[in-house]
Design a protein that fits this description.
The chain has four helices and eight strands; from the N terminus they run βββααββββαβα. By secondary structure, the chain is an alpha+beta fold. It has one domain: Alpha-Beta Plaits, CATH 3.30.70.1290. The strands form three sheets. The protein has a four-stranded antiparallel β-sheet with strand order 4-5-1-8, with helices on both faces. Strands 2-3 form a two-stranded antiparallel ribbon. A two-stranded antiparallel sheet has the order 6-7. The radius of gyration is 16 Å and the shape is globular.
């Protein structure tokens, strides 16, 4: 029997992603498809799929009361977001991965219903960064707000 190589987890080893704290996440579309709109003159113009991505993000606190949303931007092929977890709510621990997976599932279901197909919307993983202090939070907020203006220099840009 051949053993498959083990993927290295992108999560910080030993960190409790259900603990209270601030997180910055980046979630990319499958194959970095431009599903969510386009950047024109440093402003994002959302497609119907982009509108869905925004509405589903805004709805997270209604499903997860221990989550507060902060900076958020939808780009053509990814989203950046800052969120705060406040630990336990309603007798269960809110965990970052659970919130992100529910978000991705809701966006996928609504886009598929809109388009009437089995489109793969997201890549399997997402990037997270634990925000460790106010300076880190301020830097990330600035990055999120100005991301559309820097689109052509963005790592995820593809013209």
């Amino acid at each position: 029997m051949t053993s498959l190589p083990q993927r290295k987890s992108p999560r910080l080893q030993g960190y409790d992603y259900g603990s209270a704290g601030a997180y910055f996440v980046t979630i990319c579309t499958h194959l970095r498809q431009h599903l969510f709109g386009e950047v024109v003159n440093a402003e994002i113009h959302l497609s119907p799929a982009g509108e869905i991505a925004g509405a589903c993000w805004a709805a997270i606190p209604s499903h997860y009361p221990a989550v507060d949303l902060d900076g958020f931007v939808i780009m053509p092929n990814h989203v950046h977001a800052v969120l705060f977890l406040h630990g336990d709510a309603g007798g269960f621990k809110t965990v970052l991965g659970r919130v992100i997976n529910a978000y991705k599932g809701a966006v996928t279901a609504r886009i598929r219903a809109l388009q009437g197909d089995d489109l793969v919307v997201w890549q399997g993983r997402y990037h997270d960064h634990i925000l460790r202090d106010e300076a880190d939070l301020a830097r990330i907020r600035e990055y999120v707000v100005h991301n559309p203006a820097r689109w052509e220099a963005d790592t995820f840009f593809s013209g």
